[in-house]
Amino acid sequence: MYKPLELFVGLRYTRSKRRNHFISFISLFSILGIALGVIVLITVLSVMNGFQKELRERVLGMASHITVTSLERTLSDWPALVKNIKKHPEVVGAAPYISGEGLLTHGRFTNGVGVRGVLPDREGEVSFVGEHMKLGKLSDLKAGGFGIILGRYLARNLVADVGDKVTLLIPQAQVTPAGVLPRLKRFTVVGIFEVGQNEYDSSLALIHLDDAAKLFRMRDGVTGVRVKIKDMFEVSRVQQEITRDIHGYLLNNWTQYYANFFKAVQMEKRIMFVILTLIVAIGAFNIVVTMVMVVTDKESDIAIMRTLGASPLSIMGIFMVQGTVIGVAGTILGLVGGISLATNITTIVPAIEEFIGTKFLSADVYLIAEVPSDMQMQDVTFVTIISFVLTLLATLYPSWRASRVQPAEALRYE
Fold first, then answer.
1. Rounded to an integer, what distance in angstroms lies between the CA atom of residue 215 and that of residue 211?
2. In terms of CB atoms within 10 Å, which end of the chain has fewer, N or C?
3. d(C-alpha 326, C-alpha 387), whole Å
4. What is the pTM of this model?
5. CA distance 101 to 172
6. Which of 349, 384, 399 is CA-nearest to residue 370?
7. Which residue, among 47, 58, 38, has the nearest Cα to 344 in the 3D structure?
């Protein structure tokens, strides 16, 4: 006798017979339904991970992980402070900055700006602006040269290009024989950057730290120190450790400014996961329908096996094996398709865009113009487990119903 009986008979029932083509047809669609659900889940989660990663890199690529400022207006002992901060093993970079606000004018065009004074040789430690220069280089900012680097959209609004002269007015008054006048200074545009975030591309101007100190009358002081660490999600712990090493300073981190934004993105991902899991649930529901039809069709077989000594538990196991095989086949097919699609989405989407002649994400409208993908194995594993559990649960009722078949009733009219 074949052992185990449940496995042998369950696998035998999964194969099509001449009189069971309709049931086999429903089984095939159950497999395809589960596979489609798994493919969609893996692909959508990978795309959302990609968007989340791109947003995190673009938003936090210019923002500092930790900002150290003084309780007073200026921070004068920044060289020693930077040296002390860099001693922490999690810190990968620290750079001073001077921040202020002003009004840029070029001809008849004006635009409000945030002005940031930086050291070109140190700014690369805390931001990626140097990697996103469209024109010029960050090193073109020279102390005393009064050069300025503009965001792409800011330069477009001012109709300014490299080599043009722009005037910066700051809200600090100066007393002259003609009265109290706003302070202003002429700068030469030496570069244009584009980091992919409108907040910076349309309203940020970079100048040399020494020029900013003269403009804002900071002397040897700075506004603060920007710090970048290895793992931005460990920022709270690192901030506490740095606070213990330095005293008399005010420390802030990125979570105080962007936490709600990334929580919203994460919440959206979870909601999408729940919604798309319903596709897998629909496939599992098809298994219930298929198995109920199989049980009805196999009532005489069940009755014969019962009369030969098969227990209700064995009958239940037979149909659980059959339903599980359908679910596992759909899950494996979905895994292969989902992983293949998720890893090639950056190639497939541009091909589709070129074929239909349209752009899904316009660079003029959206922050990210390409469809990114970041497939994470924990998501793939979780989707696999969810799919398997749902298909396993779907087999319980039909299998229990098969185990309740009474031989005498089933064989009455045979």
1. 6
2. N
3. 11
4. 0.67
5. 10
6. 349
7. 47
